[in-house]
């Protein structure tokens, strides 16, 4: 594939035809080389059933050719037109309360509906065969942000039928379903698959195993929905890539499964999105970790394929729907783009070219404002492109090389959502406590799956290993045995993969030997924190306390309050050539820092920077490119090693301005 | 129409017939001269379809004649009886989630339903022809508080059909709908009106233009529902007035449209209603502005027809449904009544005569308690009537004469509800920041519409002029050109009237010339305030910041924090013979005060009073009547000018007691 | 019935058959003598319609015989199996919004459904005739926690039909319904019973009288549902008891009515349930009243039959569903058990034997953890059993003998839920302010019904006597006349029993003479407290203020703020041989304490203990057994009278350890 660095999301159908060449020439002039088109354009391209209206898009593609802009085409199945709804009102999805969600926004579709599938097939076949071989078209995106707005949809009878079929495929017999769902409890045994329904609202309680399978099914359904379209595209548009605009840690769809269908993954990033918790943001900013979560999402996206990726939608101005987020500060849009590149992005596509006159997203501003008059976003991005494009060509194929990994698992995330244990216990927040500490130390991180090969890593952190299979326990054991350092946290091994509890063994089950501990008791820290003593000082644990009984482990920290004061809170156990750590509670920032000091031996050496200044490198055996980024809204002192060569001559090696970046290069 | 000062809302059907003459004689003895009857009495007057039972009401009317009480009759369409529901269950309204709202309260009706319309026609025809010519009957009220409890109702198929018809009337073609709704966004184009539905809950997002039209339609529907009944009444009850009990700034129905059908408007006022935000009230009380919003509502009501009005329901005791508000303090009921008169009320009708034994409103207390034993309310109101009736006769036809106006617009209110921008940004609250400052200065205010003749005013304040038509911009321009002073605030001119964004021009569009500013950027102040510097001091702006680029305007205030510190926050521009002010953010109390000082030239001179002491006058060319009201719960010092003649001899010109009023007269 | 002290709730169907005898022998070894079985086992016992599978349970019963364990059997109608739902989907209950609640949890049933009744009849007949005569079976439980999860269910057409029939039974004619519901208000009159529906969601407001009848109906329906099953059981299983596991003050079902069907009542107690308000708990703990509410529930349960009772489910470890509560501290499980015994429990059944592998309640831990390895709970309970069993045999039939009673009424509770008046006014919380003060004084309390014989008591406290019938007023009058001391509180006598307001009389109606006061005015204390002066000191009242006008009563306390400062807040009136107290507001802790000092003459003498140390005795004419319990998490000093004989020799008469109990015996 060509070396493309910058793109925009463009909606020519929103603008008069006369404007198109003005827009495209302005893009060209900025340094844009790729545009994404048509992912919400169904009604413009098929205004009535079978009456395809492809001419206008063909003109746009020809204009793209004239301006040497490459094109990524989307399929518009996130927005079926009114005529589809009129024909098949029951594709409007059903929520868990049994009520429909109606036409008028987007994602008003049931992805199981056979009639809807047929409609999609007609559209995508016509569309892909019409444009699939166009020389400007280099790739495809199916639908948009699959899983978005579809959190708990759809519960309709088509989805129930698909769920039954999925269960039959997974379990074979109804007896096996009963076994794996523990239906004996509360008399929930099924005699046949026909008795199974979607987990709609109950009078009281849900079966956690059914709930987990529903989530797994839902992810599979959406992936199959993607595959259904991807096959048509591949048939009619050979030698083009298919990618998808993922949404970081969003978990409706298992992105590992989806990525198998893709040449590379993409990510949508809105760091001042209207949905932000601005109160929480302030706390993070005070600690200098405001953009640590953004970094985590970029690392996660890169980790999916352990390869470079695209940002398919990068925020380019103030954005929102009915409510808006804050406007980016000067320098921030560039800084976000550079952070994406630093963590492995090869191409940055800005959403969107120009703020739209109409619809739900009329305040999701683009590079150009509604007025069309180039302003701060335009000039900042244009400057960025000119400055960083050569560097991006240079680092293409060179990526961060972490020695530390954090385990991320969709199933664990689902299971903890189904049973959060503590009202504030959240799978991602808990993972993030580890990531944040590593981020502040400028230590690069990969995210890995549970059964992936962990041998590239010296240290693997596996938080909340709630669901545990024998194979998985063996994998963890082998890693430690061969010299790996492994950290697990509270609630490890509590469940089988079917969300049934482990019985007949002390926790953490088969892993007790590796960690040298048993867990016989635990406390849910409702409206109370627990004190934790480490090296004679008192810190704080929260939300949950596994009370550890070391069998052969050493105690690193003990509880210092509650009736289990003096019991172990954190332990370490040498096992084989490695070490295994068990952390019984959620650690506050200071305690996390002190705990991580214990792991110093296996942490890579990195530069110490002031809070909010991030350094990450893209490197290979010959060279390292260091990206230094100041996410704080004030200038900060830095000390760049002498053997780092400034990539841009104007850089000040002792100071980095507010919201600015620097790049250094070092030959090995 | 006769000169009637005081009335009560009376429900004889709730009481034994023997009680009626006792009640009426007590009313008479108090000074009551008018009673409102029958606006919830359908099942008592038509207990079964077509079986009218008018005798009891006829008896009441005859008794009213005996006691010389005039009567306003209501139609009971806010409470269709059980037999109507049994006959047509689908008049029970449908909410936006598709679920019905059932019988058992009130307003359980769909106002589009043809069968229900027919039922109403039968009732109102029979009722109006039976009682329409009765000599006691002086006027009518259709339904009750139209729009109340109907905020987002009804979404049923009849309403959808009516919506389609309304759209066809407004736009003519489906192409025009698509154009004005911007349906190209997210593939929402319609091929025919039949594809259009009510904006029920979606999976994700709403079309803001559809949402605005739905609100406008809804207002029109309710007004047409009123007109449908009013026509029958006018046919059968000639020479009687029709009025309606409005609810201040409630915005489901456009009261300007409704008022065209009415001889005069009325207002329902419950200043200690159970729904109050008592925490917010405390803050207002501390600043002495507890009753400023009540004053604003009275001014708004008077401004609708720029004429005297009735209070159709004035709170007369503690009130509530399942939850109650506070009981009025001694003096408050009188003070509320006097405040109403001061702002232009000609007649005060108290809700209700006696606390009801039964139903949802059994704790919505009346002048008499449940016991029937006259108490504090009875004696306070009786005293008030005797004291103020002569004055009310004297001031009839004389009204406040404001030189300052605030623009109020239903469409702007709807549009800001649909897209509040900031979680706490509220159209009425924003307007109120201006009103409150004027109130504290004892400056009388009219509310005006956008396209109304503003020539009577020296100063017009037009907050949040979000929707802007060319005609409207021209109107604003002309006003300034001819010497008017005009204040607009943030987000002015952002939208066309169809809720599509203005494009191809810098904001505020055509108004840039008048205001001498352009707005290229703005910030949404999420969880943060912005500092504003005016005359060297620092104040606070909140929620939103338009960053102003003066082209020819002068800068009054600048931002003093964020990256746009030193950019303009408030500007003034001399244009033609007038001045145009642009205020870029929501001002705190102190900043508002300082800003208003800038407008001193065009503010009328008024008396300075301590916080909580309000003065407003009803005046004509010969005379001014000054109403001095102490809304604070403590005595306060005042200084009444020597040339103001005390209306009541017992008044202390240097002190006004807690919750008391005084009246002065001055010949010009 | 045999003298059984300890039991467990056991679910053999959750475990392999091989485990059964291990479990039963472990129980036996602990001292367990009774097990509850099968109350959620429908699908295991009737896997398909009519295909009964009783063999496994028969084996369990035989094993129970082998281990000398008695058995209580449950009917499983709280969990109809999937095949029942498949056959009759419309037994899935309908919520007030018209949406169903679906299969997947429990209580997914409509208790009116005739087809479901038939299904139950088949099951219970087969089950009871199969096992009813088994020698191990000593008793029965119908369904489980009737009323749980069914708070506002079901509103389906079967329930509506049952409601109509119930109304016809209660009122005879539709005219009487109209009369008692006050349907004239808002035109709600009914012409026939067919027009009556369940009180589903309305657009605006509910009829409070309909709402009250709906609650009363619902309780009756559930009691009739119980009776329907109980009759079958009694026919097929003669000479066995039927009990039911009640839930303290839960009010969906009137437990007095239910208890008439039972040999004795049982109670389920989870003092660290996941639903607790831990913030509120902290406040209670600071005052030493953390377990006062638990004591109140135990007293209430004992009071239902004024007899000994069972705890059918006593918490035995950490518990929860998706969210967990805190784990019990060492000693707490024993302490909870002893508190139950102290207040009158004869038998303690622990929920559950072993933590379940599966389902909604997999974290509702049992005596054994999932691992099956005996831990803290097991050993603590085993020790308790051995220590306390002899005492329990000794005190059997001896109960607390309170001289003070608090009136509790389901109807008052319903009526205050329907109209709470103040957002924070809560019937149980208000009652609890009185209970708590008595608890802190170690004064034993009975709960009594309104029309019960109160002659055993010197003092009766009757809070919130909102609904009042003439018969009830007479009963209260008689009690005082004959020498009783009676305390009533605000809002007394406001309503007739049909939830219509009292009219034509000053409040509290007929009771004015007894209390020597009238109430003509009141205030709802929204966001404000009122000061109350008693004996020259200032205290605080909250939520509501009845302004008392003494006719012949003496004033104990006056208001000291608001416009009614100096008006009476608390009064006492000597009437006949007794005294009648009227308390006009909700008292804070200190004011309650000072008020209760006024009643010293009629309060029994008790030992003063530090906060959190509770003493209650079970006594008869010969002997008193004093249970001393330290509910604080710290050791506390006590002073045990010399004539109290230590029941356990190791007890320290001057100190009681954290979370520990002591027992003393005194011969009279």
Structural features, described:
The structure is a homotrimer of 668-residue chains. In chain A, helix 1 packs parallel to helix 3 (55-66) and helix 12 (332-342) runs parallel beside helix 13. Chain A folds into three domains: 6-151 and 222-395, Glycosidases (TIM Barrel), CATH 3.20.20; 404-602, Class I glutamine amidotransferase (GATase) domain (Rossmann fold, 3-Layer(aba) Sandwich); 613-667, Golgi alpha-mannosidase II (Immunoglobulin-like). A ten-stranded mixed beta sheet of chain A has the order 11-10-12-13-18-17-16-14-15-19, sandwiched between helices. In chain A, a hairpin with an 8-residue loop joins strand 16 (554-559) and strand 17. Chain A starts with 5 loop residues before the first strand and ends with a strand. With 668 residues, chain A is α/β, with parallel strands linked by helices. Chain A is built from 18 helices and 25 strands. Helix content of chain A is 32%, strand content 21%. Chains A and B meet through helix 2, helix 4 and helix 10 of A and helix 8 and strand 14 of B. Chains A, B, C: Residues 9-389 form the Glycoside hydrolase family 42 N-terminal domain. Chains A, B, C: Its EC number is 3.2.1.23.
């Amino acid at each position: 594939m060509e070396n493309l660095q910058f793109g925009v999301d463009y909606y020519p159908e929103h603008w008069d035809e006369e404007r198109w060449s003005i827009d495209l020439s302005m893009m060209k002039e900025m340094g844009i080389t790729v545009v994404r088109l048509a992912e919400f354009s169904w009604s413009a391209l098929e205004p009535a059933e079978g009456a395809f209206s492809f001419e206008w898009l063909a003109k746009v593609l020809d204009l793209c050719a004239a301006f040497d802009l490459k094109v990524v085409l989307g399929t518009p199945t996130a927005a079926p037109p009114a005529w589809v709804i009129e024909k098949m009102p029951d594709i409007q999805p059903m929520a868990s309360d049994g009520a429909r969600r109606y036409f008028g926004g987007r994602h008003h579709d049931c992805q199981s509906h056979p009639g809807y599938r047929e409609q999609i097939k007609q559209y995508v076949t016509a569309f892909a065969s019409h444009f699939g071989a166009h020389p400007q078209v280099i790739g495809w995106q199916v639908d948009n942000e699959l899983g978005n707005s579809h959190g708990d949809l759809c519960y309709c009878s088509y989805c129930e039928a698909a769920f039954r079929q999925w269960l039959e495929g997974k379990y074979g017999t109804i007896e096996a379903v009963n076994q794996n769902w523990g239906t004996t409890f509360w008399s929930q045994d099924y005699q046949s698959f026909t008795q199974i329904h979607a987990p709609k609202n109950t009078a009281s309680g849900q079966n956690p195993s059914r709930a987990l399978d529903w989530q797994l099914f839902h992810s599979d359904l959406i992936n199959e929905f993607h595959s259904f379209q991807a096959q048509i595209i591949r048939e009619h548009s050979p030698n083009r890539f298919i990618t998808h605009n993922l949404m970081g840690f969003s978990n409706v769809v298992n992105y590992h499964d989806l990525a198998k269908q893709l040449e590379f993954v993409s990510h949508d990033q809105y760091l001042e999105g209207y949905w932000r918790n601005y109160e929480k943001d302030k706390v993070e900013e005070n600690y200098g970790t405001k953009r640590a979560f953004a970094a985590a999402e970029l690392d996660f996206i890169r980790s999916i394929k352990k390869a470079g990726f695209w940002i398919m939608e990068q925020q380019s101005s103030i954005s929102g729907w009915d409510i808006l987020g804050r406007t980016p500060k000067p320098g921030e849009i560039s800084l976000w783009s550079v952070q994406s590149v630093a963590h492995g992005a090869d191409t940055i596509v800005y959403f969107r070219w120009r703020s739209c006159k109409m619809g739900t997203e009329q305040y999701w501003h683009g590079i150009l404002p509604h007025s069309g008059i180039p302003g701060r976003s335009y000039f900042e991005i244009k400057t960025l492109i000119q400055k960083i494009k050569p560097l991006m060509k240079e680092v293409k194929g060179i990526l961060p090389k972490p020695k530390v990994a954090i385990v991320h698992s969709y199933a664990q995330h689902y299971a903890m959502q189904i049973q959060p244990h503590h009202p504030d216990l959240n799978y991602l927040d808990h993972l993030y406590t580890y990531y944040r500490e590593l981020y502040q130390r400028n230590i690069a991180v990969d995210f890995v799956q549970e059964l992936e090969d962990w041998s590239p890593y010296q240290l693997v952190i596996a938080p909340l290993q709630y669901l545990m299979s024998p194979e998985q326990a063996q994998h963890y054991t082998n890693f430690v045995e061969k010299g790996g350092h492994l950290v697990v946290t509270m609630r490890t091994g509590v469940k089988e993969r079917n969300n049934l509890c482990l019985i007949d063994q002390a926790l953490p089950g088969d892993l007790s030997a590796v960690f040298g501990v048993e867990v016989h008791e635990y406390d849910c820290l409702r409206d109370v924190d627990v004190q934790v003593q480490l090296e004679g000082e008192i810190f704080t644990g929260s939300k949950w306390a596994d009370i550890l009984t070391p069998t052969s482990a050493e105690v690193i920290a003990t509880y210092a309050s509650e009736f289990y004061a003096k019991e172990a809170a954190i332990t370490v156990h040498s096992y084989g050539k490695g070490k295994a750590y068990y952390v019984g509670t959620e650690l506050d920032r200071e305690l996390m820092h002190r705990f991580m000091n214990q792991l110093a031996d296996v942490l890579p050496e990195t530069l110490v920077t002031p809070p909010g200044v991030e350094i990450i490198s893209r490197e290979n055996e010959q060279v390292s490119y260091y990206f230094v980024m100041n996410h704080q809204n004030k200038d900060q002192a830095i000390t760049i090693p002498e053997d780092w060569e400034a990539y841009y001559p104007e850089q000040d090696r002792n100071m980095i301005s507010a919201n600015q970046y620097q790049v250094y290069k070092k030959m090995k």
